[in-house]
Specification:
Zinc Finger, Delta Prime, domain 3; Rossmann fold; two-stranded parallel sheet; 7 strands
């Protein structure tokens, strides 16, 4: 017998649940389907949101040949065979056969290359399905020949509609009296995945004795006994969550930062990965506004390296809260980027003679080190000498890389630099 998820697969757009931004009345994909002509496109979304179902509905609606390939089991030869069959079976002025490729992100570059000619000429209409970001996983020439449609995780109302429809309409479930007394755990464990939701429901029903099946949160939790969180350490969610984590620290929101860190911990993320990002955040986002932030972040990294999980969460949490509550400044980060840009633009400007070491008599005779001013011996510990390379504009004519803000400790740095600049002008004036 087919699984419940397969038995409940919609056959028409009217039965299709969710993705109203694509298939609702007047939506872009609905209009294309209603016109009877579709262009090649890629469906990007998490598992169980209806990518394969949508492709099958389109093929049925257009009454056109429908070929399916799985990127897991198919090679270049399989792609070429399908394209050849599609070409031979197409009648004049008829709609192009549809080639549906599930998990297209798993196709190699050569496999994707083999699709280009057929897609461009209209030999087949490609519908690709992927759970990974096509920007990274689909070659640019193929992506440029396809529209991209993003499918969203099913919302609570969509999932509840699907649950009640399954209980009311499925031929097997109708044989049982099913009472959906509580649904929170069902929805939580499904994670917006319709297929997973129906699989869980089927598991609960099959495990219950004959007669009435009462679905409660406790029963669902007892039956599953697993972590309901979705987290792909190598996929899109990995990058989305770490991005949210860093932006929460940068945005001075310790609550959000701790939440996203908890998501990573529960998802099985490498603790050193989290700790490294905390160190980067301390340097990039807090910087010299609070130099202690980097010290604390490094201490947390060392602690995590030494003790691991689960205790490593404690020093990491301390560091995250401290960073989120610190004043923010990125002046040093911006300064090094500007310096790098200058180096790339100007090349290898020579080191001035007075800044060069002179370990030999010949080098001294050539003027190496001549005129160097030793700042610790100068008044106020500041000589005011120029340390930029030869050929660089004089101090009065150059734009500085580093401009301290008034945030936290940087206020003191700004005051000190202003004092030094005044001394530099005075001493330059006395020399003139």
């Amino acid at each position: 017998m087919e699984p419940l998820a397969e038995r409940m697969r919609p056959r028409t757009l009217d039965d299709y649940i969710g993705q109203q931004h694509l298939v609702g009345e007047g939506a872009v994909l609905r209009r294309m389907i209603d016109s009877g002509r579709i262009a090649s496109f890629i469906l990007w979304g998490p598992p169980g949101v209806g990518k394969t179902t949508l492709a099958q509905i389109i093929a049925h609606r257009l009454e056109t040949p429908f070929y399916t390939l799985s990127a897991v089991t198919s090679g270049v030869k399989d792609v070429r065979d399908v394209i050849e069959r599609a070409q031979k079976g197409r009648f004049f002025n008829s709609a192009s056969p549809i080639l549906f490729i599930d998990e297209i992100h798993r196709f190699s570059k050569s496999q994707q290359d083999s699709l280009l000619g057929a897609v461009e000429k209209g030999t087949v209409t490609l519908i690709g399905a992927t759970t990974e970001n096509p920007s990274f996983e689909v070659i640019r020439p193929l992506l440029s020949r396809c529209q991209l449609y993003v499918l969203k995780p099913l919302e609570k109302d969509d999932l509840l509609t699907l649950l009640h429809r399954a209980v009311a309409e499925d031929t097997e479930l109708k044989k049982r009296h099913i009472d959906l007394h509580e649904t929170d755990a069902l929805l939580r464990y499904s994670g917006g995945d319709a297929r997973k939701l129906l699989n869980i429901l089927e598991l609960i029903v099959d495990a219950a004795p004959d007669g009435t099946v009462t679905v409660t949160d406790r029963i669902v939790e007892e039956r599953l006994q697993q972590n309901p969180l979705a987290y792909d350490k190598d996929g899109e969610m990995h990058y989305d969550i770490i991005s949210a984590f860093i932006k929460s620290i940068r945005g001075s929101d310790p609550e959000a930062a701790l939440y996203w860190m908890a998501r990573m911990i529960e998802g099985g993320e490498d603790p050193k990965f989290i700790a490294r990002r905390v160190v980067i955040s301390a340097a990039e986002d807090i910087g010299l506004a609070n130099p202690n932030a980097l010290l604390l972040a490094n201490a947390a990294f060392d602690a995590v390296t030494k003790i691991g999980w689960p205790e490593g969460r404690i020093p990491l949490a301390e560091a995250v809260v401290y960073l989120a509550r610190s004043k923010k400044d990125n002046s040093a980060y911006k300064a090094i980027n500007e310096a790098l840009e200058l180096v790339r633009r100007t090349g290898n400007l020579p080191v001035p003679l007075h800044l060069r070491n002179a370990p030999t008599k010949l080098m001294k005779d050539l003027g190496y080190g001549a005129g160097y001013q030793y700042d610790p011996d100068a008044d106020d510990g500041f000589s005011g000498a120029d340390y930029m390379p030869q050929g660089y504009p004089p101090p009065d004519e150059r734009e500085p890389f580093y401009e301290p803000t008034g945030h936290g400790y940087e206020r003191r740095i700004r005051e000190r630099m202003a004092h030094w600049e005044e001394l530099r002008r005075e001493r330059r004036g006395s020399r003139d």
